[in-house]
Amino acid sequence: MGDSSKIGGDGGEGEIVMDEALNLLGFKFTLIGPSKVTGHLKVTKYCCQPFKALNGGVSALIAEATSSLGAYCAAGYKRVAGVQLSINHIKPAMLGDEIEVEAVPIQVGQSIQVWEVKIWRMDPLTPNNKKLASTSRVTLLSNLTTPPEMKFYADAVKLFSKL
């Protein structure tokens, strides 16, 4: 799959962004599907707290956004809504670090989904050596009515998940 959070074009009107907030921070999706969502982010000054560590709110944003996108796929491209987020910060990711993210479903029901999201700090010298930075559990309502004007988004997600 492509290394991007956007589909189509170079930032113009024809481009669909999977998640605006994550895109602004530089997050790149590497896999989107009903059983897993993955991506990565370089920790920059825009996502750090004053002590140059990844802001916990950014970790929460990543957890909510990645699990919501996966739940959206698992619900057959029907709207979902997060109702609960629990996050534990284990080790800091610092300015300049690369983080890797994986969201996987724990339970996919007709009306409720529960997803687990892990964020790892990558070791640039040994890519297979990663340290758990945070772990989250996200509960979402699923199969909600999707407004007709959002069909373009479902089509874009379907296209992106098949790349």
TrEMBL record:
Keywords assigned by UniProt, alphabetized? Hydrolase, Peroxisome
Q: Name one GO molecular function term.
A: 1,4-dihydroxy-2-naphthoyl-CoA thioesterase activity
Instruction: Report the residue ranges that make up the Thioesterase domain in this protein.
Output: 53-124
Give GO BP annotations, semicolon-separated. Answer: phylloquinone biosynthetic process
* Pfam families according to UniProt: 4HBT
Tell me the route in metabolism or biology where this protein functions: Cofactor biosynthesis; phylloquinone biosynthesis; Quinol/quinone metabolism; 1,4-dihydroxy-2-naphthoate biosynthesis; 1,4-dihydroxy-2-naphthoate from chorismate: step 7/7
Major localization listed first in the record, in broad terms: other
Q: Cellular component per GO?
A: peroxisome
**UniProt subcellular location:** Peroxisome
CDD domains assigned: PaaI_thioesterase
Query: NCBIfam families given for it?
Result: unchar_dom_1
Task: Give the similarity note.
Answer: Belongs to the 4-hydroxybenzoyl-CoA thioesterase family. DHNA-CoA hydrolase subfamily.
- Subunit record text: Homotetramers.
Q: What name is this protein filed under?
A: Thioesterase domain-containing protein
